[in-house]
Design brief:
Length: about 650
Amino acid sequence: MRFLSKTAFWTTLAPLALLTSCLGPMPPRGDGRPPAPIVPPVVAPEVPPPSMEPPRAEGPRVGVLWVPGPRVDALMSAEYLAQHPAWRVTAVFPDKFFGEDERGRRAKTLFQTLVSSKQVEVALTLPHRPMMPLLMDTEDARLSESTVEARPPRFARPEDVMEQIDLARAAHRRRWRVSPAGLALPWDAVVGPEISLWSRFKLRWAVLPSSAVPTILDNERFPIVRAARLPAGTSARRAWYKSTLEPLIKSSSTYGPLQVDALEELGALETLTGIGRVQWAPVGELLAEDPLPACLTRVPPPPLDLSPWIGEPEENRAWELLGVARQAIESYENSGDARVNVLDLAKKEIHAAEDGRIFFDLGSEGNADRGGDVRREFLATLNQVYRLMDRPAPPEIRQGFARGAAGGNGDVEPDGTFERAGSVLRWRDARSDDRGPGDYFYPTGSHPAGSWDLRTFEIRPGEGVITFYYEFTALSNPGRAPGGFSLPLVDTYIDINQSAGAGAQELLPGRPGLVEATDAWEYALTIDGWGGRLWRSSLGEPPRLLATPAVKRAGPGAFAVDVPVSALRGSPEAWGFGVAVMGRGSDGRPMPVAADPAPAAFGGAAADRAAPPYIDLLTPSGVSQRRSLGVYKYGQDVTLPFVRAE
């Protein structure tokens, strides 16, 4: 007799068992009794599938607006957020945040998962950052707080604003597979008519650059909010938690939006609050509440300053040329023989030419380092419009900026100049420009005019030392500093190799702002009437103190510091220098700039803005200090300009 193995036995029996379970119990054979009734099997109640919603903490909600800083890594952020499924945030991704390499692709894939699980809400960003009020109508320049006397021929294309939003929205949906609910507004400029356009695209809220406290514009039609920026530094963050967040936890009140640059800041906050005591929520969820959260302070719209984009000769010429090319597209569209694909490409080119950064960089106050490139790129874009339509470019486009590029409006700062005197390198700065972006005021009290006005900066190579020499319009010593002056605090950043990534781009701790990648600094010398401090940048770590050279008076309005050659590397001929003048506070730190001047503060800061403490900058020829510092009013970081031996 052949016996079946266990495996074969159950393999043979399993189909019979399945058939029996489907037909019910089989009646006994040959007993003549009626079959037993078939009892339907008991079916368990249907269990709904698990929710895609991430687990949520208990306690009050804090709305989080995450605006990744310049050094934030996309993939590491995605992985970090995935490890904290209870955290839910609104992200404003900057341009080129996701690289085109393998890490960038992995980051995008992971963020798509986080968006689909509703852990991340992505705000809509417009890739060309248009100055919407001026695209709507350049005559809106009449509403500018800073007077714009000279205006170009009228340009009014609200349909271009709609097209840019529509294209950005379609790209958003392709990438994230959801429609955006909120808009990150470029340039901190709101007039009013453009708001109705946003609603057409089912956008329900918008965010402006951050402020000290969460605010909402006094506008009933559309919620436009500013997030409160989380303070930097452990002690400041702990104080903010004690004064602001801890009372809300006790009262279970809603707070926000709160802006963070890195997701690790939420981890630091959760260390203070305790895990699970706060619900980190997206901005859209807070703004969907009715009524809106009580923490949102209603404020009037910000003062409108359109002068950085219009009014200067080159800016007005750019608006004029843009209008010529835009009219050519309209004529092509109405010609009867326009091809749809060509029309779409031409409009995309004109949207690129409408980039707000182009107009911001043009004019007598523009970025001198990029000015020529900006003009060439702008004209190349307009010429491409005509090539796509197979039309010859008209004389105006071919002429470009040859007409209207020179001259100014009487508000141009004198250029800085460079000169040599033997081995001495000397830079001269504009006179009477110690007012920051042009609207700062001296602290209250008696201070000689020009107390923070840098006039000359020199590098004097010597035997075993390099002398850093600074001359001011006036130097006084009310604080009785041993160096003979007590009002200015001067930082000098030194780039020894003009190599991107070889130094630091962030300024010294407590100094807001950045330097260009090619100006990344290796050394920094900070000087006040109590002495000098030479720092060495350390990537990934705080700067390291190398030496404390003495400061000495070198004339009625001058002082100097000798730095040993052995403490530095290379030749000053190849170095770049970034020089920033601040007021020295009683604690040795930079004196702040407030809205109103005080004995220990400069005045003139824009409302709801953290004003940079820089009172005077050494700028190269063609670079405006007013423009370099004024970017803070539009939510941008200050970029410190550098000078180099010519």
